[in-house]
Amino acid sequence: MANKIKGYNIRFLLNGKKCAGETSGSFKITPVVKESKIKDDAGKTSRQVDGYQNTFTVNGTCMVNEAGDATTQMDIADLRAAVKAGTSIPFVYGGIVSGDATESGNMIISDYSEDSDSENFMTYALSCIGEDNGLTTGTVA
Question: Which of 64, 99, 61, 80 is nearest to 14 (CA)?
Answer without folding.
Answer: 80
